UniProtKB/TrEMBL annotation:
Entry protein name: Thiol-disulfide isomerase/thioredoxin
Record domain Thioredoxin: where: 1-144
Superkingdom per UniProt: Bacteria
Keywords recorded for this protein, A-Z: Isomerase
UniProt keyword annotation of Isomerase present: yes
InterPro entries on file: 6-blade_b-propeller_TolB-like, AhpC/TSA, NHL2_NHL_rpt_dom, Thioredoxin-like_sf, Thioredoxin_domain
MF annotations from Gene Ontology: antioxidant activity; isomerase activity; oxidoreductase activity
Gene3D superfamilies: Glutaredoxin, TolB, C-terminal domain
Amino acid sequence: MRVRAPELRGRGWLNTAGKEITLKDLRGKIAILDFWTFCCINCLHVLDELRPLEQKYGDALVIIGVHSPKFEHEKDPEALAAAVERYGVEHPVLDDPELITWRQYAAKAWPTLSVIDPEGYVVASMAGEGHADGLTRLVDQLIAEHEAKGTLHRGEGLYVPPLTAKTALRFPGKALPLPSGGFLVSDSSRHALVELAADAETVVRRIGSGTRGRADGGPSTASLSEPQGLLALPQRVAELVGYDVVVADTVNHLLRGLRLRTGEVTTIAGTGRQWRSTVDDHAHDALSIDLSSPWDVAWFEERVIIAMAGIHQLWWFDPIRRTTGVFAGTTVEALRDGQLPDVWLAQPSGLSTSPDGERLWFVDSETSALRYVERAAPDDGGTSTDLVVRTAVGQGLFDFGHVDGPGGTALMQHPLGLAALADGSVLIADTYNGAVRRFADGALSTVETDLAEPSDVVVTADGTVLVVESAAHRLITLAPSTGSTMDGGRHTVERPPTLLQSGAVTLEIIFTPAPGQKLDETFGPSTRLSVSASPPELLLTGAGTTTDLSRRLEINPAVTQGVLQVVAQAATCDIDAANPACHLTRQDWGVPLRITADGDARLPLILRGLDA
Protein backbone atom coordinates (compact mmCIF):
# COMPACT_ATOMS: atom_id res chain seq x y z
CA MET A 1 0.00 0.00 0.00
CA ARG A 2 1.34 3.43 -0.98
CA VAL A 3 0.51 6.36 1.31
CA ARG A 4 -0.19 9.79 -0.12
CA ALA A 5 1.64 12.61 1.66
CA PRO A 6 -0.75 14.86 3.60
CA GLU A 7 -0.85 18.54 2.65
CA LEU A 8 1.47 20.96 4.48
CA ARG A 9 -0.57 23.23 6.76
CA GLY A 10 0.52 25.74 9.35
CA ARG A 11 0.58 29.42 10.25
CA GLY A 12 3.03 30.57 7.61
CA TRP A 13 6.38 30.06 5.91
CA LEU A 14 9.95 31.29 6.43
CA ASN A 15 12.80 31.39 3.90
CA THR A 16 10.37 31.59 0.96
CA ALA A 17 9.91 35.39 0.61
CA GLY A 18 6.32 34.91 1.75
CA LYS A 19 5.38 32.21 -0.74
CA GLU A 20 3.16 29.41 0.60
CA ILE A 21 4.43 25.98 -0.43
CA THR A 22 2.06 23.13 -1.22
CA LEU A 23 2.68 19.51 -2.15
CA LYS A 24 2.04 20.51 -5.76
CA ASP A 25 5.19 22.67 -5.58
CA LEU A 26 7.17 19.61 -4.49
CA ARG A 27 5.95 17.35 -7.30
CA GLY A 28 8.86 16.04 -9.35
CA LYS A 29 11.32 16.50 -6.48
CA ILE A 30 12.35 14.26 -3.60
CA ALA A 31 11.33 15.98 -0.38
CA ILE A 32 12.51 15.43 3.17
CA LEU A 33 10.27 16.87 5.88
CA ASP A 34 12.27 17.63 9.02
CA PHE A 35 9.98 17.91 12.07
CA TRP A 36 11.98 19.94 14.57
CA THR A 37 11.78 22.38 17.44
CA PHE A 38 14.57 24.87 18.05
CA CYS A 39 15.08 24.00 21.73
CA CYS A 40 16.01 20.40 20.89
CA ILE A 41 19.70 19.52 20.60
CA ASN A 42 18.91 16.38 18.60
CA CYS A 43 17.01 18.55 16.11
CA LEU A 44 20.03 20.82 15.80
CA HIS A 45 22.18 17.76 15.09
CA VAL A 46 19.83 16.82 12.24
CA LEU A 47 20.12 20.32 10.76
CA ASP A 48 23.87 19.72 10.55
CA GLU A 49 23.38 16.25 9.06
CA LEU A 50 21.10 17.61 6.35
CA ARG A 51 23.48 20.35 5.16
CA PRO A 52 25.68 18.02 3.04
CA LEU A 53 22.56 16.49 1.46
CA GLU A 54 21.26 19.96 0.54
CA GLN A 55 24.57 20.70 -1.18
CA LYS A 56 24.88 17.33 -2.93
CA TYR A 57 21.34 16.98 -4.24
CA GLY A 58 20.34 20.63 -4.57
CA ASP A 59 18.53 20.30 -7.90
CA ALA A 60 16.69 17.06 -7.09
CA LEU A 61 16.04 17.32 -3.35
CA VAL A 62 13.93 19.78 -1.37
CA ILE A 63 14.23 19.89 2.41
CA ILE A 64 11.30 21.38 4.28
CA GLY A 65 11.63 22.19 7.95
CA VAL A 66 8.37 21.74 9.85
CA HIS A 67 8.73 23.63 13.10
CA SER A 68 6.47 21.94 15.66
CA PRO A 69 7.25 23.66 18.99
CA LYS A 70 7.64 22.19 22.45
CA PHE A 71 7.93 25.34 24.58
CA GLU A 72 5.51 28.26 24.65
CA HIS A 73 8.25 30.69 23.58
CA GLU A 74 8.89 28.65 20.46
CA LYS A 75 5.36 29.46 19.23
CA ASP A 76 6.37 33.12 18.86
CA PRO A 77 6.92 33.73 15.10
CA GLU A 78 9.66 36.27 15.79
CA ALA A 79 11.50 33.78 18.01
CA LEU A 80 11.25 31.18 15.26
CA ALA A 81 12.58 33.61 12.65
CA ALA A 82 15.51 34.37 14.96
CA ALA A 83 16.20 30.66 15.46
CA VAL A 84 16.17 30.01 11.72
CA GLU A 85 18.88 32.65 11.32
CA ARG A 86 20.75 31.64 14.48
CA TYR A 87 21.19 28.04 13.34
CA GLY A 88 21.83 28.75 9.67
CA VAL A 89 18.73 27.02 8.29
CA GLU A 90 18.95 27.33 4.51
CA HIS A 91 15.70 25.72 3.39
CA PRO A 92 12.00 26.61 3.63
CA VAL A 93 10.44 26.27 7.09
CA LEU A 94 6.74 25.74 7.81
CA ASP A 95 5.60 27.36 11.06
CA ASP A 96 3.36 24.68 12.64
CA PRO A 97 2.56 26.05 16.13
CA GLU A 98 -0.61 23.99 16.56
CA LEU A 99 1.15 20.76 15.44
CA ILE A 100 -1.31 20.30 12.57
CA THR A 101 1.19 18.86 10.09
CA TRP A 102 2.99 17.04 12.94
CA ARG A 103 -0.22 15.09 13.65
CA GLN A 104 -0.95 14.48 9.96
CA TYR A 105 2.42 12.75 9.58
CA ALA A 106 2.00 10.85 12.91
CA ALA A 107 5.22 12.25 14.39
CA LYS A 108 5.86 11.18 17.99
CA ALA A 109 9.36 12.50 18.63
CA TRP A 110 11.68 15.42 17.96
CA PRO A 111 13.28 15.10 15.47
CA THR A 112 11.31 13.03 12.95
CA LEU A 113 12.05 12.82 9.23
CA SER A 114 9.57 11.86 6.51
CA VAL A 115 10.65 11.25 2.91
CA ILE A 116 8.25 12.01 0.03
CA ASP A 117 8.98 10.70 -3.46
CA PRO A 118 8.52 12.78 -6.66
CA GLU A 119 5.01 11.40 -7.12
CA GLY A 120 3.85 12.62 -3.73
CA TYR A 121 3.99 9.39 -1.69
CA VAL A 122 5.55 8.96 1.75
CA VAL A 123 8.23 6.30 1.32
CA ALA A 124 10.05 6.38 4.66
CA SER A 125 9.87 7.80 8.17
CA MET A 126 12.57 7.86 10.83
CA ALA A 127 13.00 9.30 14.28
CA GLY A 128 16.12 10.67 15.88
CA GLU A 129 19.47 11.49 14.36
CA GLY A 130 22.25 9.64 12.60
CA HIS A 131 20.34 8.97 9.38
CA ALA A 132 22.58 10.87 6.95
CA ASP A 133 24.15 7.76 5.37
CA GLY A 134 20.81 6.02 5.08
CA LEU A 135 19.19 9.10 3.57
CA THR A 136 22.00 9.38 1.03
CA ARG A 137 21.43 5.82 -0.11
CA LEU A 138 17.66 6.31 -0.18
CA VAL A 139 17.89 9.52 -2.20
CA ASP A 140 20.29 7.86 -4.66
CA GLN A 141 17.81 5.00 -5.03
CA LEU A 142 14.87 7.36 -5.56
CA ILE A 143 16.78 9.45 -8.11
CA ALA A 144 17.64 6.36 -10.15
CA GLU A 145 14.07 5.02 -9.95
CA HIS A 146 12.31 8.26 -10.87
CA GLU A 147 14.77 9.33 -13.57
CA ALA A 148 14.04 6.00 -15.23
CA LYS A 149 10.27 6.63 -14.90
CA GLY A 150 10.57 10.23 -16.07
CA THR A 151 8.96 11.52 -12.85
CA LEU A 152 12.03 13.35 -11.47
CA HIS A 153 12.29 16.99 -12.52
CA ARG A 154 15.50 18.76 -11.59
CA GLY A 155 15.63 22.50 -11.13
CA GLU A 156 16.02 25.38 -8.73
CA GLY A 157 14.92 24.98 -5.14
CA LEU A 158 12.36 26.95 -3.15
CA TYR A 159 14.73 28.58 -0.63
CA VAL A 160 14.90 32.38 -0.53
CA PRO A 161 17.50 33.73 1.94
CA PRO A 162 16.28 36.42 4.35
CA LEU A 163 18.07 39.71 4.90
CA THR A 164 20.48 39.80 7.86
CA ALA A 165 21.08 42.90 9.97
CA LYS A 166 24.63 44.09 10.60
CA THR A 167 25.51 44.04 14.30
CA ALA A 168 28.81 43.75 16.17
CA LEU A 169 27.65 40.44 17.65
CA ARG A 170 25.16 37.97 16.19
CA PHE A 171 23.37 35.68 18.65
CA PRO A 172 26.20 35.60 21.22
CA GLY A 173 26.09 32.56 23.48
CA LYS A 174 28.36 32.91 26.52
CA ALA A 175 30.74 35.52 27.93
CA LEU A 176 33.87 35.50 30.09
CA PRO A 177 35.34 38.43 32.06
CA LEU A 178 39.03 38.91 31.21
CA PRO A 179 41.91 40.06 33.45
CA SER A 180 42.16 43.16 31.24
CA GLY A 181 38.71 44.26 32.39
CA GLY A 182 37.14 43.40 29.05
CA PHE A 183 35.13 40.39 27.97
CA LEU A 184 35.52 37.41 25.69
CA VAL A 185 32.24 36.50 23.97
CA SER A 186 31.30 33.48 21.88
CA ASP A 187 29.78 35.07 18.77
CA SER A 188 27.94 31.86 18.01
CA SER A 189 26.08 32.64 14.80
CA ARG A 190 29.22 34.09 13.23
CA HIS A 191 31.39 31.14 14.32
CA ALA A 192 33.92 33.32 16.12
CA LEU A 193 35.12 34.68 19.46
CA VAL A 194 35.02 38.41 20.06
CA GLU A 195 37.01 40.37 22.63
CA LEU A 196 35.14 43.42 23.89
CA ALA A 197 36.52 46.36 25.86
CA ALA A 198 35.44 47.07 29.44
CA ASP A 199 32.35 48.92 28.16
CA ALA A 200 31.09 45.53 26.84
CA GLU A 201 30.45 47.17 23.46
CA THR A 202 33.70 48.17 21.74
CA VAL A 203 35.24 45.37 19.68
CA VAL A 204 38.95 44.94 20.46
CA ARG A 205 39.57 41.97 18.17
CA ARG A 206 37.90 38.99 16.55
CA ILE A 207 39.26 35.47 16.79
CA GLY A 208 38.20 33.09 14.05
CA SER A 209 37.66 33.35 10.32
CA GLY A 210 33.92 33.98 10.73
CA THR A 211 32.94 31.03 8.55
CA ARG A 212 31.89 27.61 9.76
CA GLY A 213 34.93 25.30 10.00
CA ARG A 214 37.34 23.48 12.33
CA ALA A 215 40.84 24.71 11.58
CA ASP A 216 43.45 25.52 14.22
CA GLY A 217 45.65 28.57 13.91
CA GLY A 218 45.88 32.28 14.57
CA PRO A 219 43.04 34.80 14.96
CA SER A 220 42.36 35.16 11.24
CA THR A 221 42.86 31.55 10.16
CA ALA A 222 41.31 29.50 12.95
CA SER A 223 37.71 28.44 12.41
CA LEU A 224 34.92 27.30 14.70
CA SER A 225 31.27 26.26 14.41
CA GLU A 226 28.70 27.88 16.69
CA PRO A 227 30.93 28.10 19.80
CA GLN A 228 29.29 28.50 23.19
CA GLY A 229 30.89 28.02 26.63
CA LEU A 230 34.11 29.71 27.79
CA LEU A 231 36.31 28.92 30.80
CA ALA A 232 39.43 30.66 32.09
CA LEU A 233 41.78 28.01 33.46
CA PRO A 234 43.54 28.56 36.80
CA GLN A 235 46.81 30.33 36.03
CA ARG A 236 48.97 27.45 37.26
CA VAL A 237 47.17 25.07 34.90
CA ALA A 238 47.27 27.50 31.98
CA GLU A 239 51.03 27.84 32.32
CA LEU A 240 51.44 24.06 32.14
CA VAL A 241 49.17 23.41 29.16
CA GLY A 242 49.98 26.46 27.04
CA TYR A 243 46.50 27.98 26.67
CA ASP A 244 44.37 30.19 28.89
CA VAL A 245 40.76 29.60 27.87
CA VAL A 246 38.78 26.45 27.11
CA VAL A 247 36.15 26.95 24.41
CA ALA A 248 33.16 24.66 23.88
CA ASP A 249 33.14 24.49 20.08
CA THR A 250 29.62 23.13 20.03
CA VAL A 251 28.74 22.14 16.48
CA ASN A 252 32.27 20.88 15.81
CA HIS A 253 31.92 18.56 18.86
CA LEU A 254 35.30 19.78 20.10
CA LEU A 255 36.99 21.59 22.95
CA ARG A 256 39.41 24.25 21.76
CA GLY A 257 42.20 25.95 23.67
CA LEU A 258 42.77 29.71 23.25
CA ARG A 259 45.99 31.52 24.10
CA LEU A 260 44.89 35.04 24.93
CA ARG A 261 48.20 36.76 24.21
CA THR A 262 48.42 35.56 20.60
CA GLY A 263 44.86 34.55 19.78
CA GLU A 264 46.11 31.09 18.81
CA VAL A 265 43.41 28.38 18.76
CA THR A 266 44.22 24.67 19.15
CA THR A 267 42.10 21.54 19.43
CA ILE A 268 42.38 19.96 22.88
CA ALA A 269 39.58 17.36 22.98
CA GLY A 270 37.35 15.56 20.52
CA THR A 271 37.76 14.16 17.03
CA GLY A 272 35.22 16.34 15.26
CA ARG A 273 32.87 13.38 14.98
CA GLN A 274 29.68 13.24 17.01
CA TRP A 275 29.58 10.69 19.85
CA ARG A 276 27.55 7.60 18.91
CA SER A 277 28.72 4.85 21.21
CA THR A 278 27.99 3.23 24.56
CA VAL A 279 28.62 4.75 27.98
CA ASP A 280 31.63 3.53 29.93
CA ASP A 281 33.49 4.61 33.06
CA HIS A 282 36.95 4.73 31.50
CA ALA A 283 39.32 7.63 30.98
CA HIS A 284 40.03 8.20 27.29
CA ASP A 285 42.72 10.06 25.41
CA ALA A 286 41.01 13.40 24.86
CA LEU A 287 41.89 13.67 21.18
CA SER A 288 40.73 10.14 20.37
CA ILE A 289 37.21 10.26 21.82
CA ASP A 290 34.11 11.68 20.14
CA LEU A 291 32.11 14.42 21.91
CA SER A 292 28.52 15.57 21.38
CA SER A 293 27.58 19.25 21.34
CA PRO A 294 29.57 20.53 24.33
CA TRP A 295 27.61 23.62 25.40
CA ASP A 296 29.43 24.96 28.45
CA VAL A 297 32.53 24.39 30.57
CA ALA A 298 33.44 25.02 34.23
CA TRP A 299 36.29 24.25 36.65
CA PHE A 300 35.28 21.86 39.45
CA GLU A 301 37.16 19.24 41.48
CA GLU A 302 40.43 20.17 39.72
CA ARG A 303 39.07 19.32 36.28
CA VAL A 304 37.11 20.91 33.46
CA ILE A 305 33.49 19.82 33.56
CA ILE A 306 31.70 19.78 30.19
CA ALA A 307 27.95 20.25 29.73
CA MET A 308 27.56 17.59 27.04
CA ALA A 309 24.17 18.78 25.85
CA GLY A 310 24.03 16.40 22.90
CA ILE A 311 23.85 13.24 25.02
CA HIS A 312 22.37 14.59 28.29
CA GLN A 313 25.51 14.12 30.35
CA LEU A 314 28.30 15.97 32.12
CA TRP A 315 31.81 14.91 31.18
CA TRP A 316 35.18 15.76 32.71
CA PHE A 317 38.38 16.81 30.95
CA ASP A 318 41.84 16.80 32.55
CA PRO A 319 43.92 19.38 30.63
CA ILE A 320 47.20 18.21 32.17
CA ARG A 321 46.75 14.48 31.56
CA ARG A 322 44.81 15.21 28.36
CA THR A 323 42.13 12.67 29.20
CA THR A 324 38.36 12.80 29.34
CA GLY A 325 35.38 10.68 30.44
CA VAL A 326 31.84 10.61 31.80
CA PHE A 327 31.16 12.58 34.98
CA ALA A 328 27.38 12.32 35.36
CA GLY A 329 24.40 10.97 33.41
CA THR A 330 23.43 7.83 31.56
CA THR A 331 22.25 9.49 28.28
CA VAL A 332 18.59 9.00 29.31
CA GLU A 333 16.87 12.37 28.85
CA ALA A 334 14.88 12.94 32.04
CA LEU A 335 15.19 14.26 35.58
CA ARG A 336 16.45 11.90 38.29
CA ASP A 337 18.75 12.78 41.19
CA GLY A 338 21.16 10.53 43.04
CA GLN A 339 24.78 9.47 43.15
CA LEU A 340 27.03 10.02 40.19
CA PRO A 341 27.12 8.86 37.50
CA ASP A 342 23.71 7.13 37.55
CA VAL A 343 21.50 10.20 37.27
CA TRP A 344 19.30 11.49 34.48
CA LEU A 345 19.94 14.87 32.85
CA ALA A 346 18.18 16.69 30.03
CA GLN A 347 20.35 18.82 27.77
CA PRO A 348 22.62 20.53 30.32
CA SER A 349 23.47 23.93 28.83
CA GLY A 350 24.99 26.11 31.54
CA LEU A 351 27.53 25.52 34.33
CA SER A 352 28.79 27.63 37.22
CA THR A 353 30.95 26.65 40.19
CA SER A 354 30.20 28.31 43.51
CA PRO A 355 32.99 30.67 44.61
CA ASP A 356 33.87 28.34 47.51
CA GLY A 357 34.23 25.42 45.09
CA GLU A 358 31.75 23.26 47.02
CA ARG A 359 28.98 23.09 44.43
CA LEU A 360 28.75 22.82 40.68
CA TRP A 361 25.48 24.44 39.66
CA PHE A 362 23.98 23.68 36.25
CA VAL A 363 20.79 24.18 34.25
CA ASP A 364 19.08 21.40 32.34
CA SER A 365 17.31 23.27 29.59
CA GLU A 366 14.85 20.55 28.52
CA THR A 367 13.47 20.01 32.04
CA SER A 368 13.73 23.75 32.79
CA ALA A 369 15.66 22.76 35.88
CA LEU A 370 18.28 24.25 38.20
CA ARG A 371 20.45 21.47 39.64
CA TYR A 372 23.76 21.06 41.42
CA VAL A 373 26.52 18.57 42.21
CA GLU A 374 27.98 18.36 45.71
CA ARG A 375 29.57 15.92 48.16
CA ALA A 376 27.18 13.34 49.58
CA ALA A 377 25.90 13.70 53.15
CA PRO A 378 26.01 10.66 55.48
CA ASP A 379 22.28 10.06 55.06
CA ASP A 380 22.66 9.80 51.24
CA GLY A 381 23.84 6.24 51.60
CA GLY A 382 27.33 6.94 50.32
CA THR A 383 30.63 8.18 51.69
CA SER A 384 31.95 11.70 51.95
CA THR A 385 33.92 11.09 48.73
CA ASP A 386 30.78 10.39 46.70
CA LEU A 387 29.21 13.10 44.57
CA VAL A 388 25.46 13.49 44.19
CA VAL A 389 23.13 15.50 41.96
CA ARG A 390 20.21 17.37 43.51
CA THR A 391 17.45 19.41 41.89
CA ALA A 392 16.65 22.87 43.27
CA VAL A 393 14.01 23.84 40.68
CA GLY A 394 12.40 21.71 37.99
CA GLN A 395 9.67 19.11 37.63
CA GLY A 396 10.19 17.23 34.36
CA LEU A 397 10.40 17.25 30.60
CA PHE A 398 6.91 18.60 29.98
CA ASP A 399 6.35 21.11 32.80
CA PHE A 400 7.50 24.70 32.52
CA GLY A 401 6.34 28.26 33.03
CA HIS A 402 7.20 31.49 34.85
CA VAL A 403 6.30 30.91 38.50
CA ASP A 404 8.25 32.21 41.49
CA GLY A 405 8.24 30.71 44.95
CA PRO A 406 9.64 27.62 46.70
CA GLY A 407 11.92 25.51 44.55
CA GLY A 408 9.53 22.57 44.63
CA THR A 409 6.75 24.51 42.87
CA ALA A 410 8.62 27.25 40.97
CA LEU A 411 8.94 26.97 37.19
CA MET A 412 11.30 28.23 34.48
CA GLN A 413 11.30 27.88 30.68
CA HIS A 414 14.41 26.47 28.98
CA PRO A 415 17.20 28.25 30.91
CA LEU A 416 20.62 28.26 29.24
CA GLY A 417 23.01 30.04 31.62
CA LEU A 418 23.70 30.91 35.24
CA ALA A 419 26.17 32.42 37.69
CA ALA A 420 26.75 31.25 41.26
CA LEU A 421 27.34 34.19 43.62
CA ALA A 422 29.48 34.52 46.73
CA ASP A 423 26.42 34.86 49.00
CA GLY A 424 25.24 31.38 48.01
CA SER A 425 22.53 32.55 45.63
CA VAL A 426 22.38 31.80 41.90
CA LEU A 427 21.36 34.07 39.02
CA ILE A 428 19.78 32.21 36.12
CA ALA A 429 19.32 33.23 32.49
CA ASP A 430 15.74 31.98 32.10
CA THR A 431 16.04 32.09 28.35
CA TYR A 432 12.58 31.40 26.95
CA ASN A 433 10.91 33.51 29.65
CA GLY A 434 13.16 36.44 28.66
CA ALA A 435 14.10 36.87 32.32
CA VAL A 436 16.85 36.72 34.90
CA ARG A 437 15.82 34.76 37.98
CA ARG A 438 17.46 34.48 41.42
CA PHE A 439 17.51 31.32 43.52
CA ALA A 440 18.26 31.95 47.19
CA ASP A 441 17.24 30.29 50.46
CA GLY A 442 15.30 27.61 48.64
CA ALA A 443 13.10 29.97 46.62
CA LEU A 444 13.07 31.45 43.12
CA SER A 445 12.34 35.11 42.35
CA THR A 446 12.42 37.31 39.25
CA VAL A 447 15.13 39.96 38.93
CA GLU A 448 14.61 41.24 35.37
CA THR A 449 12.13 40.65 32.55
CA ASP A 450 11.53 41.67 28.92
CA LEU A 451 14.93 40.47 27.76
CA ALA A 452 15.54 38.89 24.35
CA GLU A 453 16.56 35.29 25.03
CA PRO A 454 19.22 35.83 27.72
CA SER A 455 21.69 32.97 27.42
CA ASP A 456 24.31 33.65 30.11
CA VAL A 457 25.02 35.62 33.28
CA VAL A 458 28.56 36.69 34.25
CA VAL A 459 29.97 38.46 37.28
CA THR A 460 33.08 40.67 37.13
CA ALA A 461 35.74 40.93 39.83
CA ASP A 462 34.07 44.05 41.27
CA GLY A 463 30.68 42.33 41.46
CA THR A 464 29.08 43.87 38.38
CA VAL A 465 26.58 41.48 36.76
CA LEU A 466 26.24 41.31 32.98
CA VAL A 467 23.73 39.38 30.92
CA VAL A 468 24.28 38.00 27.43
CA GLU A 469 21.06 39.09 25.69
CA SER A 470 21.46 36.72 22.80
CA ALA A 471 18.53 37.63 20.52
CA ALA A 472 19.30 41.34 21.01
CA HIS A 473 22.94 40.63 20.00
CA ARG A 474 24.54 42.38 22.98
CA LEU A 475 25.75 42.32 26.58
CA ILE A 476 23.90 44.44 29.12
CA THR A 477 24.60 45.39 32.73
CA LEU A 478 22.04 44.10 35.19
CA ALA A 479 20.76 46.76 37.56
CA PRO A 480 20.97 45.82 41.28
CA SER A 481 17.72 44.26 42.46
CA THR A 482 16.48 42.20 45.36
CA GLY A 483 13.96 40.45 43.10
CA SER A 484 10.18 40.34 42.91
CA THR A 485 7.59 37.58 42.87
CA MET A 486 5.79 36.72 39.63
CA ASP A 487 3.29 34.16 38.45
CA GLY A 488 3.36 34.16 34.68
CA GLY A 489 1.51 30.87 34.47
CA ARG A 490 2.20 27.19 34.23
CA HIS A 491 2.47 25.32 30.95
CA THR A 492 2.70 21.75 29.83
CA VAL A 493 3.76 20.50 26.43
CA GLU A 494 0.69 20.26 24.22
CA ARG A 495 1.67 17.08 22.45
CA PRO A 496 -1.41 14.84 22.36
CA PRO A 497 -0.87 11.95 24.78
CA THR A 498 -0.80 8.38 23.51
CA LEU A 499 -3.80 6.44 24.81
CA LEU A 500 -2.90 3.03 26.23
CA GLN A 501 -4.88 0.46 28.14
CA SER A 502 -3.83 -0.73 31.56
CA GLY A 503 -2.41 -4.22 31.86
CA ALA A 504 -0.49 -5.90 29.04
CA VAL A 505 0.85 -3.61 26.29
CA THR A 506 3.35 -4.45 23.55
CA LEU A 507 6.04 -1.86 22.86
CA GLU A 508 7.48 -2.32 19.38
CA ILE A 509 10.36 -0.37 17.86
CA ILE A 510 10.10 -0.46 14.08
CA PHE A 511 13.51 -0.49 12.42
CA THR A 512 14.36 -1.24 8.80
CA PRO A 513 18.02 -0.90 7.77
CA ALA A 514 18.68 1.79 5.20
CA PRO A 515 19.22 0.74 1.57
CA GLY A 516 22.60 -0.97 1.25
CA GLN A 517 22.88 -1.70 4.99
CA LYS A 518 22.22 -4.67 7.26
CA LEU A 519 22.10 -5.22 11.00
CA ASP A 520 25.66 -5.64 12.30
CA GLU A 521 26.23 -8.45 14.80
CA THR A 522 30.03 -8.30 14.54
CA PHE A 523 30.57 -7.13 18.11
CA GLY A 524 27.47 -8.65 19.68
CA PRO A 525 23.73 -7.92 19.49
CA SER A 526 22.93 -5.20 16.99
CA THR A 527 19.97 -3.69 18.84
CA ARG A 528 19.32 -2.32 22.32
CA LEU A 529 16.16 -1.12 24.04
CA SER A 530 15.94 0.66 27.40
CA VAL A 531 12.60 1.46 29.01
CA SER A 532 11.74 3.46 32.13
CA ALA A 533 8.79 5.54 33.27
CA SER A 534 7.89 8.69 35.17
CA PRO A 535 6.43 8.09 37.66
CA PRO A 536 8.25 4.74 38.05
CA GLU A 537 5.09 3.06 39.32
CA LEU A 538 3.49 3.54 35.89
CA LEU A 539 5.22 0.28 34.89
CA LEU A 540 4.54 -2.85 36.92
CA THR A 541 6.84 -4.85 34.64
CA GLY A 542 8.86 -4.14 31.51
CA ALA A 543 11.39 -1.57 32.74
CA GLY A 544 15.08 -2.20 32.05
CA THR A 545 17.43 -2.89 29.14
CA THR A 546 17.36 -5.77 26.65
CA THR A 547 18.59 -6.45 23.12
CA ASP A 548 15.13 -7.12 21.69
CA LEU A 549 13.28 -4.23 20.00
CA SER A 550 9.95 -5.60 21.19
CA ARG A 551 8.91 -5.59 24.85
CA ARG A 552 5.86 -6.64 26.85
CA LEU A 553 4.91 -3.96 29.35
CA GLU A 554 2.42 -4.15 32.17
CA ILE A 555 0.77 -0.80 32.81
CA ASN A 556 -0.36 -0.08 36.36
CA PRO A 557 -4.17 0.45 36.42
CA ALA A 558 -3.75 2.70 39.47
CA VAL A 559 -1.80 5.29 37.42
CA THR A 560 -3.81 7.41 34.99
CA GLN A 561 -1.03 9.27 33.19
CA GLY A 562 2.75 9.56 32.93
CA VAL A 563 5.70 9.55 30.56
CA LEU A 564 7.24 6.45 29.05
CA GLN A 565 10.96 6.94 28.46
CA VAL A 566 12.30 4.79 25.64
CA VAL A 567 15.86 4.64 24.28
CA ALA A 568 16.43 2.45 21.22
CA GLN A 569 19.46 1.93 19.05
CA ALA A 570 20.43 -0.28 16.12
CA ALA A 571 23.89 -0.93 14.67
CA THR A 572 24.18 -1.50 10.93
CA CYS A 573 26.99 -1.93 8.42
CA ASP A 574 27.33 -1.56 4.66
CA ILE A 575 26.54 -4.58 2.50
CA ASP A 576 29.03 -5.88 -0.07
CA ALA A 577 31.70 -3.28 0.65
CA ALA A 578 35.42 -4.03 0.80
CA ASN A 579 35.73 -1.88 3.91
CA PRO A 580 32.15 -1.67 5.23
CA ALA A 581 31.33 1.40 7.28
CA CYS A 582 29.47 0.98 10.57
CA HIS A 583 26.46 3.12 11.54
CA LEU A 584 24.54 3.59 14.79
CA THR A 585 20.95 4.80 14.76
CA ARG A 586 19.64 5.97 18.13
CA GLN A 587 16.60 7.79 19.48
CA ASP A 588 15.21 8.81 22.87
CA TRP A 589 11.43 9.13 23.20
CA GLY A 590 9.57 10.72 26.07
CA VAL A 591 6.04 9.54 25.24
CA PRO A 592 3.22 11.22 27.24
CA LEU A 593 0.65 8.56 28.12
CA ARG A 594 -2.94 8.60 29.25
CA ILE A 595 -4.30 5.30 30.54
CA THR A 596 -7.90 4.62 29.50
CA ALA A 597 -10.15 1.59 29.21
CA ASP A 598 -10.36 2.00 25.43
CA GLY A 599 -6.64 2.65 24.97
CA ASP A 600 -4.42 0.65 22.62
CA ALA A 601 -2.65 -2.56 23.57
CA ARG A 602 0.25 -1.82 21.21
CA LEU A 603 2.69 1.09 21.08
CA PRO A 604 4.72 1.22 17.84
CA LEU A 605 7.59 3.71 17.56
CA ILE A 606 9.49 4.19 14.30
CA LEU A 607 13.25 4.29 14.67
CA ARG A 608 13.52 3.84 10.93
CA GLY A 609 11.09 2.17 8.61
CA LEU A 610 8.83 2.39 5.63
CA ASP A 611 5.76 4.41 6.46
CA ALA A 612 3.59 2.00 4.50
